[in-house]
Design goal:
Blueprint (H helix, E strand, L loop, with lengths): L1 H11 L7 H21 L17 H23 L7
């Protein structure tokens, strides 16, 4: 009776798919993407007839999209990371 009850308890116990390491990488990815989108914002003009060349700055064209892509890479890595894998 004891073994049967123990096996039932093991089956009923819920285990999370993601562990602390996965959530850490997910948070890093979200922070990178948020920073990228924040860096992309701004540079508009109040007057639509006036052109503002600041929209083509290094920060908006190169840095911000790169940060967003790095954040997406962290997210994919966090999802595919298997913390249960034995070394």
């Amino acid at each position: 009776m004891g073994k049967k009850q123990k096996n039932n308890q093991e089956r009923n116990r819920k285990e999370f798919i993601f562990q602390k390491k996965n959530y850490l990488f997910m948070f890093i990815g979200i922070a990178c993407m948020a920073l990228g989108f924040i860096l992309m914002s701004g540079g508009g003009s109040d007057d639509p007839t006036v052109f503002n060349p600041d929209i083509y700055s290094f920060r908006r064209i190169r840095l911000a999209p790169t940060l967003v892509l790095i954040g997406l890479g962290f997210e994919v890595y966090a999802i595919l990371l298997n913390p249960h894998k034995k070394k």
